[in-house]
């Protein structure tokens, strides 16, 4: 069924990005690698940002906690600067087109392609007792999320590059068969902070689900916890604040400091010349605390106003459905589904 009353997007390039509510908070990696950029892009692009709770259940979740985390994560994207008047902010499971297109795209995605995804390999090793089909086809759902909005750019951290390339391949394959159905999206990966590493093991990316409490800084951590985590960050023992290949711990702290303060790597090296790691770690921790303070305050205010949050995510879902339904209608027609 064609939906002719659907709102039309103004002719600006389109951005889509999403984040999983696997915790009610985000990591500093999620923030610096992705969410911090979301608000900056709102004036120049038509943006759609989603809390992707359907992706979250590829790993077993406690239902009551997932519900709570989803609302908290929604409040947190607004606290990080997503403006529901400028952008479409919504919760993935409220917009049925995502699951519907994902099914179609599953039929245009090859087993071999999905088997090569490093996230699938990592997560199936980590959750060996629950290697479900959803975990395997996660990238087809992600492709649906993106392609439904005729997206031009997808702001993500470097860890999502492989999934994004698969979304492009699926779009190109589908277009090759049926004509120009999907816009083929590009990634928007930040120059600094595209891959923030664990504070406990700088060889591993910082992740929400890391079991080591010292590894991950969460946006909603209290200030003294943030400072403590930075103080205990694993580094080398050279006591030289310099960006070098053999100094992954210090490189990571420098990237964080640079992303938060705007100082270049050279400026940081000059600023901390002759100072020890203790001073540097404290400075990084304090800069992060100051960056997060207004976000934490706004998040607390928003969470106290559930009616406002509900009105925002309902309006967001309505707009998202209107736009995405047009793409889904086109896809259904192309693959030969009898119109309803
Ligand atoms: N360490 C990171 N550095 C930079 N960017 C990162 N992102 C994730 N980790 C880092 C980016 O954050 C966005 C949202 O990520 P997600 O919610 O889809 O989950 P993820 O990539 O699987 O991240 P996590 O934190 O490791 O979650 P869990 O533990 O639940 O799997 C994406 O744009 C991602 O690139």
The level of helicity is 40-55%
The total beta strand count reads: 5
Helix/strand structural class: mainly alpha
**Percentage beta strand:** 5-15%
User: Major beta sheet, specifics?
Assistant: 3 strands, parallel
Report the uncertain regions: none
Helix count from the secondary structure assignment: 13
Arithmetic mean pLDDT: 95
Q: How would you characterize this protein structure?
A:
α9 (about 225-230) packs antiparallel against α12 (about 275-305). β4, α8 and β5 form a beta-alpha-beta unit. The protein contains 13 helices and five strands. The radius of gyration is 21 Å and the shape is globular. The strands form two sheets. It has a three-stranded parallel sheet with strand order 1-2-3. It has helices at about 30-40, 55, 65-80, 95-105, 110-115, 120-125, 135-145, 160-180, 225-230, 250-260, 265-270, 275-305, 305-335; strands at about 15-20, 45-50, 90, 155, 185-190. It has about 350 residues and is mostly helical. The structure holds adenosine-5'-tetraphosphate. Adenosine-5'-tetraphosphate binds near residues 33 and 159.
List keywords for this structure.
mainly alpha; 340 residues; 52% helix; 13 helices; two-stranded parallel ribbon; binds adenosine-5'-tetraphosphate
Write a short abstract of this structure.
This protein is mainly alpha-helical and 340 residues long.
